[in-house]
Amino acid sequence: MEEQAKELRALMNEDNFARPAAPHKTRIIAITSGKGGVGKTNIAVNMAIAYSQLGKKVILIDGDLGMANVNVLLSVVPQYNLMHVINRKKTMNEIILDTEFGFKFIAGANGFSKIANLSNDELDYFAKEFASLSNADIIIIDTGAGISNNVLQFLSAADEVYVITTPEPTAITDAYGIIKIITTELLQRQINLKLLVNRVHSSDEGKRISDLIINIVAQFLNYKVEYIGFVYDDPVVQASVIRQKPFMIINPTSKPAVCLKHIVGRIEKTDIPSDAGVSNFLKKFLGGKKK
């Protein structure tokens, strides 16, 4: 416990929220995992809160289009979702929900795989609507676990991709598996991959797991993955799920909350990619589909 207390004091004392002055550009982050149950959606929701607490304009998009569940963690029942935009029944701005936690939320929808078969006119309409989100500072996309065409589209277009794993052997294996698929399926693009280890009991455990995955990826895939940080295992996380209220809100000084603030602080200290922004996201997301 003393070791963990020292680590947390160190995290809290760091200047986690220093932000270099820079021209406005939307940063688009995709969060993914090789398997379900590693806390991916929880990380996405609470990261959105951490960013909003910095004064950022944040939009969280539920991209888990088979089993969308961000709304469950937020305890909201969306009336409209992305499918209403695809079908031209609503505009993007009409489906965005304001949350009580300081960020905006866009619900996903089953059947969104239709994006792969849209006509050029439909693609143009979707692109125009998505472009309306360019006033955001941060867009976080919670993708589905595993790999599908939709997930690959989001991952290939995002500025940064965060792969979530835990110390469990199956999660480690699946994390390597999804990194392998990303790096082999998207050979034409350099994906900015980062690794986050969730539910650790010490910083040493997080570093050990990350080193294992990063070294294997470098050896067998010849690809560089960056370790972005860890989040402690803590009862507050399960309690937050049951109460349908994010742990950043239930206990903002808890170990997981402090860890996420630290991670967001590290992200903010890195330069936004030169090709970041909604316009370039759309070019990559829709690239190759319009003939």
TrEMBL record:
One of its GO terms (cellular component) is cytoplasmic side of plasma membrane. The keyword RNA-binding does not apply. One of its GO terms (biological process) is negative regulation of cell division. One of its GO terms (molecular function) is ATP binding. InterPro entries: CobQ/CobB/MinD/ParA_Nub-bd_dom, FlhG, MinD_FleN, P-loop_NTPase, ParA/MinD_ATPase. It comes from the Bacteria. Residues 29-246 form the CobQ/CobB/MinD/ParA nucleotide binding domain. Keywords: ATP-binding, Nucleotide-binding. This is Cobyrinic acid ac-diamide synthase. It comes from Treponema succinifaciens (strain ATCC 33096 / DSM 2489 / 6091). The lineage of its organism: Bacteria, Pseudomonadati, Spirochaetota, Spirochaetia, Spirochaetales.
